[in-house]
Amino acid sequence: MKKAEFILEHEEGFHARPAGIFSKLASKFKADIVLFKNGNQEKEYNPKSIISIMTMGATQDDKITIQADGSDEEEAVNSLLELVENDFKM
Fold first, then answer.
1. How many angstroms separate the Cα of 24 from the Cα of each of 39, 40, 75, 89?
2. Where in the cell is the protein located (predicted)?
């Protein structure tokens, strides 16, 4: 299992455009991937679903945890972090 955290710095949070781009990239991986918001591990979100990401209601400065488990977990987490660092530009 691979985990990483990031602070959502995008001014508008996870609105439709970044959520869609994030979901599209997450869907390319075989690993099971979940997101957690602000350390709350009781509620997990599916990053392969744009609807799930948007229901998270993540706004600027929220802490998001990515957790992946599977054959390509390392690549999945690193790629998703890189996407966020590049302001959702693929």
1. 24, 24, 15, 12
2. Cytoplasm
* Four-CA torsion 57, 70, 2, 39, nearest 10 degrees: 30
* Among 6, 15, 21, 63, the one annotated catalytic: 15
Is residue 10 part of the annotated active site? The answer reads no
The helix (run of H) or strand (run of E) holding residue 76 is helix 73-85
Specify the pTM. 0.94
CATH 3.10.20.30 is held by the domain 2-86: no
Whether residue 90 has pLDDT greater than 80:
no
